[in-house]
Each structure stands twice: as C-alpha cells, then as structure tokens.
Amino acid sequence: MERSASLARSRPEEFRLVNADFAGYAYRLSKKWKRRFFVLEGRRLSYFGNEDEANDPGRAPKGAITVCAAYHWSDVNNGLIIVSSSGDLWKCYVEMTNAGEEILPALTRVAEHCRAVADGRATSGDVPSAAEVTAIRQFCNARATAEFKLNHFCVPLRVDAHVTRGWVEKRGAVMRSWKRRYFVLRENVLAYYDINLEGQPKKGGDLVQSIETSTVKPNGLEFKMVSGRSLVGFTETTDDHVQWLLAANTLYHEP
C-alpha cells in the first residue's frame, strides 16, 4: 500500500510500535516542559512517560491527538506547534540529534497531506472521513495557515522548506553594543537565541521584508522588517554573509 494512504488510516489492530512512523523522545509543554516518549502512527500522535511505557501493550498513552497541522515554532529553539483535528495545540521542542529530529519528516508528510486535502489536491484514496475532512479544511486551508503563522510566529512544516541558521553579531536597538546571537530564519520568520541549544527561549525576532548589505562593519547585514524597524549585524566570514543575502530569495512561500 502506498505511503500516502497510510496517513489517512489508523491501525488499532496492531501494536502501536510495529508500524510507527516515529517513536522517540521530545519535550512537551504542559505546566512546564517534560520529556516524553512520542509515537506517531499515521495521523495519530500519542505520548508516554518513557519508552518502557510505550513498549507495554497494556499501557494507555498519557495523551493522544489526531494531527491536522504542524509548524516550526520560534518561541523556543527547535520548537514545534502541533494542531489536532479538534483544534488542540501541543507545544513541543525536539532534541538536536538525528534520532530526535526524525519526527520532522514524519510530521511533514502528515502536514502536507492535510493541506492537500484542504485544497482538494488529494486523491479519493487519501481522503479521511467526512468529519475529519471538515476539520482539515477548517485548520489547513491557505487562509487559516497564513493567519496561524502570523498569530503564533511560526512556519508550516513543508517538504521543500529552506532554513538559514548561523551566528550573527547583532547591534542592540537601545544600547549600541554588539552581541553574538544565533539566528534562525524560516521563510520570513526570523528568531534569535543566546545559544544554539534546543528549548532555548527566543531573545527576539520579527518578520523580515528584506536582507541587504550594511556598511556598518565588514560582512555587514541589515534585516529590514515588515514592522518598519531594522536590525543591523555582521558575520565573521564572507561565506556566512553571502548565505544570509541569498536567504532573501526564500522569504516568501505560497500557502
């Protein structure tokens, strides 16, 4: 059976880890951040206290949702917002390891599939139940996706996504001192952090309108924001400088 068809069906007759699209640890925010063991089967995402609990067929998950959409969330480094078909939001972040980030392509396939259903691009064999289609059209249509992006400062998971990351010496807006920050740009959503570590809270960011060369320093950059403000900085190397200028070509993406 094709992979796309498996996204729309559940497999209650089989043990959850047999055909899991992802099984591994991530952090989920409830009252505080907790490391949980996540299992993604098609569109069903559940989590357990640890791997042993997930491997126990008699153990029920601590929580479960049917995934409708997924976004890169910039409030924390390597953050995610996962939206259920009932409108629930799970705020998470994944570890910066090969094993931890394996959840991203699996969630991307789900998110792409749901957007295809929402705008009528999915084939009949891929379409979920009528009730689920209604929810998917509500949360995954182009307008809803664009509004969610602006409201939560996040970017939809996409197969063809481009991300630019690296250290930039940033000039303060009030105190004109220089501070080294780790910049992450997805589409036109820029966020920066004190250090490059998963779960680190964002120090600042904005929606970028353009990226240009600045003469303030060698390898200088000026990030012009949609809000009208500018952020000035510079990179250590010419290659890094060029990387950010080229990123201006990936600021916008059709919903």
UniProtKB/TrEMBL annotation:
Lineage: superkingdom: Eukaryota
Domain PH: 19-67, 161-253
Pfam families: PH (PF00169)
PANTHER family named in the record: PROTEIN OPY1, TANDEM PH DOMAIN CONTAINING PROTEIN
Protein name, per record: PH domain-containing protein
Source organism of this protein record: Saprolegnia diclina (strain VS20)
Organism taxonomic ancestry: Eukaryota, Sar, Stramenopiles, Oomycota, Saprolegniomycetes
